[in-house]
Each structure stands twice: as structure tokens, then as C-alpha cells.
């Protein structure tokens, strides 16, 4: 197996690192994504709520990279949750992305009273082979337990906020027990960890940046990671993390930075229906 990929519970290979594109206000997303693809990125993570699926689709189409070499993720918005509305939202996303199939479809956030029906829709799409893998985002243990009590297909991925200040130890154990691949959004905590002495010291030893150390820690912790950047230097920096390994001691010292500190909760109105 390619060391740059992890294998999901159903055998699908997913890149360890991808590009997060939550930047709906930017007009240059297409060119920036194409630049990332030229550098070697093959995984792109978007969502209906980001309002840039069309730009992602255009970049993928214009890249010249074979579709089978790409891994494209999108998510159903909170306002679109429910069985029929999720199926409608999926078709809308596919039209914008200009794709015949999707690699990973996620429930963006748990929505009480709706997420179980949403999951049934994802299971339907999975059985129809419209989607190669299905999963969830921002689900905690209680959310997963509720889903697993009725699910016919176990989620293959759970994408959550994850960085050295928020390590989710209990959730990690739960997901590992159920063979749910963890994925980190905002792994660099929006640059707030750049001055951390522990991270700076480890980075200096390896001749790497703090960002590279964090992303390497993600992967060695078993997390797929999707840092967001449209800066060419950082794009290249973020993907250059497969030529060094953190020691067990270094991994443990980063784990100990945990403060259970979350970034400010996003404006949930941004996650309403976008279809």
C-alpha cells in the first residue's frame, strides 16, 4: 500500500493529507486548487455550505489528472438533512462538482431528529455506488452511538476539529474500536500554535516548521489531515511531511499539550441549505 494513503474499513484508499477549501469568499479558489493539484495534492475537501463546489469541480476538470487518481469529499448542509432532501442535495453537489461519483460524502454536523434519516440516504447512495465511502463530521461519542444503533453501514470517516490543543483521546479510542477513520479539520488551529515552545523545539531538531511537525503528528496519530491554505509556499510546505518521523517521546510531548480547547464555534447559519 502507498505510504501516502490509509485504507478505510471498506478497502477504499484515502490520502493521508488533503486540501481543505473553506474559503467561500475567495474568487481565486479554482486557480489555487489547480496549483495544489500540480504540487501533488490528490484529495480535496469541500462542502455544500462552503459555496465553492463549482470552483472545485472546475479545478478538477481543468487539472488533467485522471479522475481515478483524485479523492473528492463534500458534505450535506444542516438545512438539507433528512432522507429525500439529502438525496436532492447530493445531486445538486454532483452537478456543481461535475462528477459522476463521489469519493466521500459526509454529514456536516449532527442535527437532532434528522441525522439518522440523513444517514439512511447516505447508505442508499453508497449501495448505488454513487459514493465510494460515507461518513460523518463533528460527531462525538454520543452522536456516534445513536447512529450506530440503527446504521446498516458503519461510518468510514469522522472528521473533527483536531490539533495539539484538542486531542480527543476518548473519541479516538471509540473510533478505533469501530474502525472509523479519524480526519482532522483545522489541524493548525489557524496558526495559533506557531509560537509554542515544545513544537518549536521539535521542529528545530528535524529542520522542519511547526506546521509540518503538527501535520506529521496528525498522521502518526492515525488522523487524515486537511490543512487549508491557498499560499503557494505553505501549500508545498504542508504536503512535504513524508520524509521525517517523530519519535515516541516527541509524539507524547505533543499529546500533553492538550487543553481541550476548541476554536470559536462557527456561525451555523453558514451551514444551512446551499442546494
UniProtKB/TrEMBL annotation:
GO molecular function annotation: oxidoreductase activity
Matches recorded under Pfam families: Aldo_ket_red
Keywords on record: Oxidoreductase
Domain NADP-dependent oxidoreductase: 17-258
Site (Lowers pKa of active site Tyr): 75
Annotated binding of substrate, by residue: 108
Active site location: 50 (proton donor)
Family: Belongs to the aldo/keto reductase family.
Protein name, entry field: Aldo/keto reductase
Organism for this UniProt entry: Paenibacillus xylanilyticus
Amino acid at each position: 500500500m502507498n505510504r501516502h494513503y490509509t485504507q478505510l474499513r471498506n478497502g477504499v484508499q484515502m490520502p493521508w493529507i488533503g486540501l481543505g477549501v473553506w474559503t467561500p469568499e475567495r474568487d481565486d479558489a479554482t486557480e489555487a486548487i489547480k496549483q495544489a493539484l500540480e504540487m501533488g495534492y490528490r484529495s480535496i475537501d469541500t462542502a455544500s455550505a462552503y459555496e465553492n463546489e463549482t470552483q472545485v469541480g472546475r479545478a478538477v476538470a481543468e487539472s488533467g489528472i485522471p479522475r481515478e487518481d483524485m479523492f473528492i469529499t463534500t458534505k450535506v448542509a444542516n438545512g438539507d438533512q433528512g432522507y429525500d432532501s439529502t438525496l436532492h442535495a447530493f445531486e445538486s453537489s454532483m452537478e456543481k462538482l461535475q462528477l459522476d461519483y463521489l469519493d466521500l460524502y459526509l454529514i456536516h454536523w449532527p442535527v437532532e431528529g434528522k441525522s439518522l434519516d440523513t444517514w439512511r440516504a447516505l447508505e442508499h447512495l453508497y449501495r448505488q455506488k454513487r459514493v465510494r465511502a460515507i461518513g460523518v463530521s463533528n460527531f462525538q461519542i454520543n452522536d456516534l452511538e445513536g447512529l450506530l444503533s440503527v446504521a446498516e453501514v458503519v461510518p468510514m470517516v469522522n472528521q473533527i476539529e483536531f490539533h495539539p490543543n484538542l486531542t480527543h483521546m476518548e473519541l479516538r479510542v471509540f473510533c478505533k474500536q469501530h474502525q472509523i477513520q479519524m480526519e482532522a479539520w483545522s489541524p493548525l488551529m489557524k496558526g495559533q500554535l506557531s509560537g509554542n515552545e515544545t513544537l518549536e523545539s521539535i521542529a528545530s531538531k528535524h529542520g522542519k516548521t511547526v506546521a509540518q511537525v503538527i501535520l506529521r503528528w496528525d498522521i502518526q496519530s492515525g488522523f487524515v489531515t486537511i490543512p487549508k491554505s491557498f499560499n503557494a509556499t505553505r501549500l508545498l510546505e504542508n504536503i512535504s511531511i513524508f520524509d521525517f518521523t517523530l519519535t515516541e517521546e516527541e509524539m507524547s510531548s505533543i499529546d500533553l499539550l492538550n487543553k481541550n480547547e476548541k476554536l470559536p464555534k462557527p456561525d451555523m447559519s453558514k451551514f444551512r441549505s446551499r442546494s
